[in-house]
Fold these 2 entries.
Entry 1:
Amino acid sequence: MRIKRLFIKDFGIFHNELIEDIAPGLVVIGGHNRAGKTTFMELLRYLPFGFPRKKKFILARNRHEVEATISLSDNEEANLYLQGYSAPLIKGSKEIASTSELFYQMDPFTYQQLFTISLDELQYYRFNNNEKDKLHSILLGAGLKEFILAPQLEEFFYKEAEKIGGKQGDPKVKEFKPYYLMIRDGMKLQAEASRQVERFHEKQLELKSTEDNIRENEEEKEILEDELYRLDILKNNYHLYAEIVEIKNRLTKDEVSRYLQENINFYPERAKDLLDRFNKKKEEIKELSQRIREKYGAEISKDLVERISRHKMDIEQLKEKVAGLKEKVNFYFEKEARLEREEKDLKNSLLTINQDWQGGLEEIAAIQVDQIELEVLQQKIEKYNKVSSNLDREKSNLQEYQERKDYLEKAIEGIQVNKPFKMLNIYFLGSFIFILAGFLLARLNIYFTLFSLVGVLGLGIYSLYKYTTEKNYLLYEEKSKIEIHNLDLRISSREEKIKDYMESLEPLEEEFNEYRKMLGLNRNASPEFIREYYKELQGLKAKANQLKTEKNELAQDFITLEEELKKIVDLINIFPELLSAQIIDQDLDLHLQDQQIFVAVKDLYEFKDNIMALLVLDRENREIDFEVKELLTSAGMEYREESGDPGMVLEEYLQDYEKYLQYSRLQERMELLRGQIQVVLNTEAARKAMDSLKIEVGQGIKEPGESAELYHKFIYLYNQFSSLDIVEETYNLRKLKLAQLEEILDKEKKDLISIQRELAELATDEALKKASQLIDEGRKDLSILAEEYAVRKTAAFILRKVREIFIQETRDKLLAGASKYFREITRGEYKAILPKDNIMESDFQAILKDGTIQESIDLLSRGTLEQLFLAIRISRIKEIEPALPVIIDDSFVNFDNFHLTESLALIKELASTHQVFLLTCHSHLVDSCLEDIPIQFWKLERGRFSRSNREDLVEYLSLE
Amino acid sequence: MRRIRFLHTADLHLGSSLSIGGEYSAALSPLLDNAIYDAFSRLCAEAIDKQVDFVLISGDLYDGGSRSVKANIFFNQECEKLASHNIPVYIIAGNHDPLSFHRELIAPPENVHLFGGEGPASMEVYDQNGEIIANIIGCSYNNRAESRKVHLDYRGKAGIWNIGLLHTQLEAENNYYLPASIKELQENEEIHYWALGHLHQHNVLWQEKNRAIVYPGIPQGRDMGEEGPGGAVLVDLVPDSEPEIKYINLSSLIYQKIEIPVDSIQKGNLIDLQRLIMEIGEELLKNHFYLPLNNEQIVEAYIVDWVLTGRSEVSSILKREKEEAFEYLLNSLQETFISRKPMLWSRKIIDRTGMPIDESLIQNNSIYQDIEKIIFFLKENPDFQEELLEELGLIWSGDADHEELDPTLFHLNNTTLEAVLRQARQLILEELLTRRELA
């Protein structure tokens, strides 16, 4: 393939630079530094691949743009377009997909290293290892690339494998490790599991023995617990029983037994009560006696008391009687007084009516009013009255008429009658005057007209009035005169009648005088009065009679009263001790001494009461006595008359009672304590604890576990210890022991559980399962890794083998061509180039003419080295089909003339098969280009190409 | 001689657990716990149902590494059932439950006959009428290894069936597990039926008229290494005829390793992969994994490892996401199939996929050819394999002898080697191509 034409639109220093008709053979381009040679080289380097997007690449003004026309091996042409960094576009007649096809799938590095030979890129030292290896492989032969890759890959696979399993493939390391560990764990478990079966039997035995131990210990524990419980009971109730003992001691004294007999009953309340009563009674008696003495001054002798007793009833009745008598007396006095009063009243009444009366009650009684018949009197009086009244009536009528007459006469006299007609005249006159006045005055004022009208009117009215009145008077006068006449008539009639009446009255009057005489009235008394007086007298007489009767009664009463009072007094007198009895004067009327009597009675009564009370008290006292006796008996005490008054006896009794109380309290307390202890003993737990204590129990206990038996045991227990302290000490010791035992038991039970659990586990295959699972899982994952490891190791192995084979087979042939060229360049000084024994080593051996081997390129001079590399490259280039363009850049500058000539000769040979671009700035190089083959010369000046020839170019380049 | 019928089994490993690897659903738990026991229960049920004359257990009844009281009790209970049907059981101790291991804590019922370890012994079997119907000869392992060739001393009785119980690896040179060869067994003509045990794969090694040499296989697989259904053999010895040997499936759980080629998945889509596995799973489940089961209904679960192979873009996701991707796939698989009857439990996913690579790119290149060459050598050349094995380090130094397995080590068997080589090649190619492009 050859580049025919280049159009560099934009690339570094080149802009729109067209190079046409580029020769297919050797093309020498000469230019000074910075003319663009290196740039041009870069362009050609990347032409097949597209420009790389890297930092230090050639810059473009706008965008890289290059066009190239290439002629292909079969005379076809293709156009290459490079723009920017994109892949080259190809347009050609044939279907060419990409430049890689064009360039026969050569990679950029190979192309660059082989086909672009640059001065400073000849040697290895400029490269890093990777590139060195690559280069080395390139230099050794194109197909070696893979072989060079091989060691890389081999290394790579080794490393990969190492990552997984280390260098040795030891399952214990690296990525294997965790799964390895898992498997190991599983194996451990497995081993463990198999041991388990043996353990099973062992554990069974262990189980049995542990169970036995536990049982024994449990038993012991129970015993100990019982004991502890008992001790605890004892400890807590020790003081109770101690007290019981103490009480027992106190109660065993003889004296006490008396009190504790069964049939002893004390009634302290009653005793107290009795005592109280007794004392009270005593007090009362004392008081009463005192009082009696004080009050009545009477010494209370037995005789007196007897007397009182005897007459008790009487005295009692006395009270009633006295009450009645009191009343009677009062009544009597009242009556007496009343009668007196009434008599007086009677007299007074009569006197009131009749001042002239003389005489007293008798006389009043003697009046013979009966003789006069009230009825007749009444009739007479009525008649008299009637007539009288008629008389009066007439008289009054007469009077009336007389008076009226007088009046009327007087009235008529009085009237001065004016003639009515006079009146009218006055009126008219008057009116006229007024009208005139009016007219006259009207001149002065119109209102005066009014005035005159008014006057006229007024006058009119007045006149009218007057006229009327006078007319009335006249009438009246007439009337009166008539009336007077009438009256006169009436008067005379009346006078007649009066006379009649007066006549009829006379006889009556006389009768009435008779009456007056009879009744002791004076003459002035009216008939009515007589009647009234008569009536009164009737009443009074009746009353007087009554009074008389009452008076008689009174006298009777008096007697009776006196009698009765006498009786009382007699009774009182039975008790002369009573002071008051002496006050009564026997001679006087008793009733007048009623107060004293009554007081005396009262006193007596009271006295009796008191004495009776005293008696009662006395009796009560005796009753008390009796009760006391009873009491004492019930208390087993004797009642002795001589013991003194019941009070003291009672006191004694009460004291006794106190003692009794005390003892019985003690006994009760003892019982209580005993009860308490028994309650404690009677609980289930206590029973159980006590039960296990086996001792000889006394008789009387029918069943084991009976309270009595328990108690008995308790006492026994109590007696085992001399003090509470010792009990406590023992208790604590036992408790400690129990705690220890419990600890042991606890541990044993835990052991039991764990043994049981183990047995259960051992009977299952859980452990086995788990072990298998672990191993399984580990293996599963490990197998994958192992395979991966194997694969990589195998790959490395294969590659190594490949390499070895290759080395074995091809070593010698590799650099045959290069050796030839090297020989030529060095004019035979060097015979051959060989790769190192390890051909992969980026080094060469140079064999001198005489067979000496210079084992490393480091041993070669710079010039020789460059020649060596050149030789190898050229040899390679030649080998590679097809022929791609070669670019050489100033590589020969270090060669001496001799070598230069030879090198050029080689290049010429190369140019016979390849298009070779030779870029230089050295004139002598150009000069050395002998034109025994077609050479095309170009001048490159600041990015501008121009055809040239050797001479011109040499000249141009010689200029600095 | 009359016709007799018996059940022959071995390597029950009662007490050991099934490998499930890691967490599993609670629904699986009872199955896992009881599978081995259930298989034996079924066996006893079959024995009763088929009215066998006796039952033979050719060693490894218990699992020495997993001794448990539970196993003991269980076995005794089952034998009681057999006893009630007058079926005796004849047992020899194997390397996993040798006599020295205090096999039983609880004495088994009377119908169970265990052979001693001093030397071969005979036990006669009588039927209901008191007639002798068979002679069983056996010798137990005293310890974990047996180097005596006891089978050579097995003597038969004339006129009755002679059945020899032997727990052996059937390798002439193997001093651990009773060195013996088929030839030797065949040559001992006194023994009609060799009831073998120790190898877990069912195999009728040889049979002819009146005679057979049989490995019954295990009643229930315990690991992915014991793929396929488990069972025992029901044998009818018919005079003058070849023994009728019928394999009876007993296992409720079956392990399966299924390869899923991912090449059909175009883009790197995990969902597609999931769907693919599901589809395959469905089909397999529907068809009982195309296994030759004679009683499918007893199978309750398949425990499956999915091995992804082939090349697809999805490989990059798998390699990148790794745990998460597998977890995701496993979860969805488990969820989907957990409630089926039978259940399918996806135990793990093994990724052996690779990125799609254009092999044409490399075919001409000599390095690849060399790689192929080397791989080929590795497959064929045991010495080369040795060399590789050394490289592979400690973890692959596991013993081939499945009995002596150190669970932390692995053994590179042929299948694994092939898989490793395949993957190594894949990896190398991928890397080379990637680097080549980058260079």
Note: The CA atoms of residues 35 and 941 of chain A lie 5 Å apart.
Entry 2:
Amino acid sequence: MKKYIAVDEKDTRSGFGAGLFELGQTNQQVVALCADLIGSLKMDAFVKEFPDRFIQVGIAEANMIGLAAGLAIGGKIPFTGTFANFSTGRVYDQIRQAVAYSNKNVKICASHAGLTLGEDGATHQIMEDLGLMKMLPNMTVINTADYNQTRLATLEIAKYNGPVYLRFGRPVVPNFTNPNSGFEIGKAVTYEEGTDVTIIATGHMLWKALEAWDILHEKNIHAEIINLHTIKPLDEKAVLSSVLKTGCVVTAEEHLRNGGLGDSIAQLLALRNPAPVEMVAVDDKFGESGKPEELLVKYHIDTPDIVEAAIRAISRKKG
Amino acid sequence: MNKICDVAKLSEIARNIRIDIIRSLAQAGSGHLGGSLDLADIFTVLYFNEMNFDPSQLNNENRDRLILSIGHVAPVLYTTLAHAGFFPVEELATLRKMGSRLQGHPCKETGLPGIEASTGSLGQGLSLATGLALAAQHDNLSHRTYCILGDGELQEGQIWEAAMSAAHYNLNNLTAIVDRNHCQIDGYTHQVMNLDPLYKKWSSFGWKVIMCDGNDFHEILKAFYIARQSSNQPSVIIAQTTMSKGVPSIENDYTWHGKAPSPEQAREFIAEIMNVR
């Protein structure tokens, strides 16, 4: 009997589009920039309704980041939109100098992140972006789980004054988080309380973690499920207090193991409260073409992988 | 800011700026002398004639802005700002020292008055300036945005992305200045990576192009006047300059791109400047 059932299925990028459109109505300082991907980023409604606050930059992502920083100097709240690969790796030095080092109020909004981009293959499936962005001082890094959460995060980051990287994805996935819960940057959300193992998930993997909870529950394993939508700043208190209770951790993300969420959690625990950590993440590989669900299986970041990791983590506990 | 139109007075200010550039670089023991010296005349015109600002009201949203894309010539910006009243001239002695607001390349976060953005990694400043000019256009603000570019810097592709976008959005409130001293770290620009024909490149990108002698006050003043008249295009002033202008013994020597003078050299260079009147 499954505890978690999605009310509907939507893509997270549409949550961004919906949030951006609402911001257009409520916040005159918000401007949007796009590098020739309006439809893919679901920015159509904003572009149609607020053409004077939309800046098409063409296929020139480096310039887009610079324009956004300049607009921020001029008092605007710029939201840039393109694929995650072109939002981060392609423009790293531009973000480093003009946004992070300069501490500019730029919101870098990135779709098509991770393996679930699917058929376009490895050139576009960036799985290094969380690491690249979290390494930058001043940068806040958010990876949302579903449509509702992405919409709420989009609304919230406009209120926060500082650089933000907001990561979401392409595929239609279960939409299950509370649309009325609000969104607090840097605050972990506990979905299930448990005593045997802490499962910390971000992005699309939150749903997989909840599926894993059902399976573990049938095995009489009580997992605590925490959603860390904000990779940085890390909600250290939530992680440490949960691990104090459960004694071991599984992390789950659609990212390389190097530089991802698991890496942040392992660092925190190593410094503050060592405990067994298992990481469900991609192991130092580029992706490839395929259906999103096929790729998650092949690259071992699917529900059964979380279940197995939980069992391994528990078996590694001392005493 | 009272606008100074008297060329003799501007020339005296530029001379004093050059002397303080040399002093601060000698005290720092490192830094970029050549470009800082050759831009002294243009910076003098910008901050003592062309730009509208009030050093006591730096948050005025309608102040003219300057983005120094070539952050390595920070000494000419810092020295000019100090002479224009943005901060005490004595602070120039802290250049490149730990804890100083005068970082090796401009840092906005130090809070140094007059710094609009952190720059240093080349090729990015024109995008920032274009974004600023777009914001002003959107808000119907009358202020202008200036961007100082190096000629070698034009080898960066992002410059041309920005050039395309500024023309696309008809930003006549934006003026770029190219410091055309023909020198970069590894040699003369035509040897390292040819930039010509620069006039045609900029004009084909939709910019109003103005050529001038960047070390002649009459020509600099006229160039900025023409730039202001542009009705629907961004403007670029290609300023022909001589690297290390003002110190004849090292003029046009590209090896002075990234060097600082020793204390003894500094005394010699300052003596040369005092004699060139």
Note: The CA atoms of residues 181 and 242 of chain B lie 5 Å apart.
